[in-house]
Amino acid sequence: MSTIINKVTKFILGIVISLVSFTANAQKTLLDQYIAEAFQNNQGLHSQEFQLEKSLYALKEAQSMFLPNVSFLGSYTKTGGGRTIDFPIGDLLNPIYNSLNQLQGGENFPKVQNASFLLNPDNFYDAKFRTTLPLINAELWYNQQMKKEMIGQQQAAVNVYKRELVKNIKTAYFQYYQAVKAVDIYNNALQLVNENIRVNESMLRNGVRNSTALTRAETEKQKIDASINQAENAQKNAQAYFNFLLNRSLTTEISLDSAAFSAGDKIIDNASGDISSREELTQLNKTAAVYQLNKKIQQSYIVPKLNTFLDLGSQGYDWKYNNKTQYYMWGVNLQWDLFAAGRNHYKTQQATQDVKAVKAQYSETEQALKLQLEQVINNFNTATANFQAAQTQLQLAQKYYTDQLKMYKAGQLLYLELIDAQNQLTNAQLQRAVAFANVQIAQAGIERTIASYPLQNN
C-alpha cells in the first residue's frame, strides 16, 4: 500500500513541477523575448562585450607574468682592427731558447714571435636559450589584482548598457503601441465621419438638411485623412527605431502583447525605491579599487625585486660546435630602488588623488541617482493620475457623443455641435492612449532606476 502511495505522490509532484515550469516560461512576455533578441544582436552591446573579453585576456596576461619566460638569443661578431693586447712572449722565451740551443749545439728551440690579440672577437658566435622567472615582485601581484577589478568594472559597464537598452526597447515598444492606437483611433473617427456623410446625404435627398452639413462632413474627412497619414508616418518611425535597437530590418513587423502592459492604477511612494543595486555604483567601486591597487603598485618600490635566470647555449669561433663550446649559466638578479629623487613619492600622491576623486564622484553619482529615482517615481505617479483622468474623460466623451448623435439624427442639433462632440471623443481616445503609454514608459523608467530587470535570465 505504501508503495502505491509513494508512486502516486511522485506522479503528482512531477505534474506540479511541470506546471510550475510551464508557468515560469509563460511569464516571459513577448516584450521580454524582444529584449533577449536585442541582447543577442545589438551592436552597441557587442562592443561593450568585446571590451569585457579584452579585460579577461588582460587578466590572463597578468597571470602569465608569474610563469617562466623562455627566449632564444643569438649574436654573431665579425671584426677587424681596434684595440689589441700585446703579449711579449718572444721577448721572454727567446733568450732562454737561445741559451738552450747553445748548450745543446743545435736549433731544437725555435724563436717565438711576440703575440698580439684583438679585444673584439672576430668570427665569433653566441647562441643561447634564456629562461627567466620572477621570484619576488610585488608590482606583478598588484597588477594581477588590478586586472581582476577591471573585469568587474567592465562587467558593470556591460550591465549598465544592457539596462539602458532595456529601457530604450520598452520605451520604443510603448511608443509604437501609442502610434498604432493613434492610427486605429483616427480610422475609427474616419468611420464616424463616413457614417455622418451617409446620414447627411440621406437627409439631403429627403430635403431634411441642406448641403452645408454634407460639405462640412467632407471637409472633416479630409482633415482626418491627413491625420491618418501623419499617424501612420509616426508608426513607421517608431517601428523603424524599435527594429534598429534589435538590429534587424527596419520594416520588420512588431507584435503587441497585452501581457507587457500594466493598468497603471498603482501609486508608488518614493521611500519604497532603492538604488543600491545600480551598476553605476558598482562600476565606481571597482574603479576606486583599481586606483587603490595602482597606488599600491607605486608604493611597491620599497619591496626588492628578485628574479632568477638560466642560460643554456653555445659560443665559439668559426661556427664550431662541440662539448667545449657548450655552456650553462645560472644566477639571480636583485633590484632594490633606494633613491629616485622623489619620483616614486610623487607617483604615489597622484594615485592617492585618483582615489579621492573617484570617491567624490561616487558620492555625487549616488545623490544624482537618488534624485533620479524621486523624479521617475513622481513622473509615474503623475502619469498614473493622468491616465485615470483620461479614462474618465473618455467615458464622458463617449456618452456625450452618443447623446449628441441621437439629438442630431432627431433634428435637434446643429452639425457643428456634432462635429465638436466627435472631436472631443477622438481627442479623449488619443489622450487615453498617450496617457496609457506614458504609464508604461514611466514604469520602465522606475525599473531602470532601481535596476530591477532580471538581466541573468536573458
Automatic annotation (TrEMBL):
This is TolC family protein. Residues 1-26 form the signal peptide. Belongs to the outer membrane factor (OMF) (TC 1.B.17) family. GO terms for molecular function: efflux transmembrane transporter activity; porin activity. Its main location: membrane. It is found in: Cell outer membrane. The lineage of its organism: Bacteria, Pseudomonadati, Bacteroidota, Chitinophagia, Chitinophagales. It comes from the Bacteria. Gene3D superfamilies: Outer membrane efflux proteins (OEP). Keywords: Cell outer membrane, Membrane, Signal, Transmembrane, Transmembrane beta strand, Transport. GO terms for cellular component: cell outer membrane; efflux pump complex. The keyword Glycoprotein does not apply.
